[in-house]
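Recall the central idea of this unit: under ordinary conditions, the amino acid sequence of a chain determines the structure it adopts. In this exercise we apply that idea directly, starting from the sequence alone.
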Amino acid sequence: MRVLKAEKNHRLLCLTARRRGAVPAIRGVTNWGSIPALIVESYSAHHASPAGNMRTAGMIGGLGPESTVDYYRAIIARFRALKPDEGYPHVIINSLDVDKGIALLDNGRLGELADYLTTGVELLVRARANFGFIAANTPHLVFEEVQRRSPIPLLSIVRVTCDYARALGLKKVGLFGTGFTMRASFYPEEFQRAGIALVRPKESEQEFIHGKYIGELLKNRFLPETRTDILNIAQRMRSEDGIEALVLAGTELPLLLRDTASPGIAFLDTTIIHVEAIVAELLR
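Accordingly, the structure predicted from this sequence is:
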């Protein structure tokens, strides 16, 4: 793997790629101090075949950025736990703009959101990903359309979470996420097909959770008072609605709640559930 840290080198890399007739895969871009950009090019993706039978996963990330980092770390940890002597997984990350995604959702422009995500998947395909996944729940509003247009299979976070809940024998679960996710039908319909009732918070609670999600969690702010308030909603749903578990259907929510105990309620961490399925697919 080659790391080029200077803007000059970045321009040279792109110029070289254009002369060769191909654009190198960019696995991560970030701003660190005075360094304009960090460009990471995967050698194996463009110059050699992956070793052994290693498959390549393509991640649509950035929705939001903090959970994308969490996904990548979790994928590495899971892979190394299962295959400690076989190096590291091949993962290509295409980090999209969460603000653009939210703006499209706020304005009900789901067709444009599907176009945006599909274009992101096409870049993963060009970087030779064998399969893809979206490292977020809310974009699954248009998952079926994106999958229909994708040249590679996409691993749904909703489907694997539902399979996990069914394997646990759960019959009634709660749902936390963005307001877009909590109001949408894609989670209830999937769980209904599995014979699992899915309960949403009250409307005022949904508004509270959504406001904290957009205003704090997506901005890397994880406050103890927010944690307490959200746990209180979970406990109310346990006592009044009879939920057995709570689906954390927002991949920033585990960053707030993962290490928190809530008596009588199991948290279904959609990030970890998805990651286990992704690594299983990598090793297939």
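The beta strands are 2-4, 39-41, 56-61, 90-95, 131-134, 172-177, 197-199, 245-249, 266-269.
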